[in-house]
Fold this sequence. Notes:
There is one protein chain. The chain is α+β, with helices and mostly antiparallel strands. The protein is built from eight helices and twelve strands. The chain has two domains: 4-94, 3-Layer(aba) Sandwich (Aminopeptidase), CATH 3.40.630; 132-255, Aminopeptidase (3-Layer(aba) Sandwich). The longest helix is centred in the first third of the chain and has 18 residues, at 12-29. It starts with a strand and ends with a strand.
Amino acid sequence: MTPVQILDRLSAAQAADVLALAAAAEQADGVYPLSEDVVLRVRGGGSPAAHKHFLTYADDGRLAGYAFSEGELVVHPGYRRRGHGTALLAAAGSGPLRFWAHGDEDGARAFAEKNGFERVRVLWQMRRSLTEPLPDIPLPAGVTLRGFRPGLDEDAWLGVNSRAFAHHPEQGRWTRDDLLAREAEPWFDPAGFLLAVDVADTLLGFHWTKVHPASGDDPALGEIYVLGVDPAGHRKGLGAALSVAGLRHLAGQGLTVANLYVDESNTAAAALYRRLGFAVYKTDINYQRP
């Protein structure tokens, strides 16, 4: 069996090797193989929870495969079909396990089936043009928008986020460390982190946008990064109004394409985004082994 290193934290050199492996996989497969959260943890950011990094090396000493205990696995294109993926799975243990396949690719599907994994979750990336007209959806009465204030709004946002995403397997578990890690990222822009508040400045909902620079064949993208409404103080139409307000902000930055990620099973959110002109662009699959 191919040996696997299991680490709590990566060195700077190991992190660089993992990111280089991910870049090679993206070039070969046309889709980046790691989520943003895992990239942050590879770099040493995010919540210091008990997660593990798994590394396997080829005979020439190069990093051949990488896995993260929260469900990411990727093998370098030059070292596939040599047992590295199987070794990473074995090192993760024989119990229940999940991993993401970014892009609904035949190779990932075959690997999952061979190793006893079932398709349990579908995440859509949806896109729309920002050059097309946006609907006029006003904010509910008594609600205004303002930008996020770093150092002041973290606790209120974390509370609303946890309630809005109480049943979401990733988003609802964000901690202060997770939020601060993203505030430290070069893309973070508090002006694009829109907060909906009432007359007492109580947070009712939010639309956090993110700008992705052009990459490969992709133009610069304006993302609906996270959008949530506090179920404890829900105002009719606030989610749709926040969606449009954020899209107008992105269009005002000169962006021409917007994107977002939504679970296929979240039919209410997917229906809202379709009404706003979004269509499915790519699909990510989560596989689970019982």
